[in-house]
Amino acid sequence: ETGVTQSPTHLIKTRGQQVTLRCSSQSGHNTVSWYQQALGQGPQFIFQYYREEENGRGNFPPRFSGLQFPNYSSELNVNALELDDSALYLCASSVPGQKSTEAFFGQGTRLTVV
Amino acid sequence: GESVGLHLPTLSVQEGDNSIINCAYSNSASDYFIWYKQESGKGPQFIIDIRSNMDKRQGQRVTVLLNKTVKHLSLQIAATQPGDSAVYFCAETGSGSARQLTFGSGTQLTVLP
């Protein structure tokens, strides 16, 4: 176990709806990164939060947004859901100053958009 | 654009044999290259990494080789066990402040009894 927990584990939403996914980082880790993993593909970087601020973003539209809270937990929000948003959403926590290979992944949230 | 690709989508090996999983990358500026293992229903799990100024690194039953001339990365697993069956991803660290990981599409390793 990595100490990174995500909720919910599975979710079904209708196209056009909004969704919020949650992540609790490993104790002591103040950096959280979110990744989208489509079926049969590698994870793709969405964005990273450090000290409650966005610290880097991948090639995802603005309807993907996030938050980080003082306790370092994080949320990923997706508005106006599209069918192609169906994927496994992973969060990874890490400590800045260490190489990014020190990131620890949660088990993911499986989102299905119908 | 930047990409990390894998040569083979699937690999089957006999239990006890050695496995070799290959990966090609395109971003010469990457600082670290990493191998992850992902079992069904779980998030990626770190296996081993190698810094860009090295060409070989060994761990427990695993060895990573980096050939910067041809931008090639490989993972060797010695004495493959049934528990090694999983999808293996190579990844590289980005050059931005977030040092985000860029993953390849994965190789499914199946260990046959």
List keywords for this structure.
heterodimer, A: 114 residues, mainly beta, seven-stranded mixed beta sheet, four-stranded antiparallel beta sheet, 0% helix, 50% strand, globular, B: 113 residues, six-stranded mixed beta sheet, five-stranded antiparallel beta sheet
Rg estimate of chain A, integer Å: 13 Å
Tell me how many strands of chain A there are.
11
Large-scale geometry of chain B: globular
What string, H for helix and E for strand, traces the elements of chain B in order? EEEEEEEEEEE
Give the overall average pLDDT of chain A.
Answer: 92
Q: What is the terminal-to-terminal distance of chain A? A: 31 Å
- If helices are DSSP runs of H or I spanning 4 or more residues, what is the number of helices of chain A? 0
Low-confidence stretches of chain B: none
The number of helical segments of chain B is: 0
Overall shape of chain A: it is globular
Q: What does this molecule look like?
A:
The complex is a heterodimer of chains A (114) and B (113). With 114 residues, chain A is mainly beta. In chain A, 0% of the residues lie in helices and 50% in strands. Chain A has strands spanning 5-7, 10-13, 19-24, 31-37, 44-50, 53-57, 64-68, 74-78, 87-94, 104-105, 109-113. In chain A, the strands form two sheets. In chain A, strands 2, 4, 5, 6, 9, 10 and 11 form a seven-stranded mixed sheet that branches. Chain A has a four-stranded antiparallel sheet with strand order 1-3-8-7, with no helix packed on it. In chain A, strand 5 (44-50) and strand 6 (53-57) form a beta hairpin. Chain A is globular, with a radius of gyration of 13 Å. Chain B is an all-beta fold and 113 residues long. Chain B has strands at 4-6, 10-14, 19-25, 32-38, 45-51, 56-58, 62-67, 72-77, 86-93, 101-103, 107-112. In chain B, strands 2, 4, 5, 9, 10 and 11 form a six-stranded mixed sheet that branches. In chain B, strands 1-3-8-7-6 form a five-stranded antiparallel sheet, with no helix packed on it. The chains are: A mainly beta (114), B mainly beta (113).
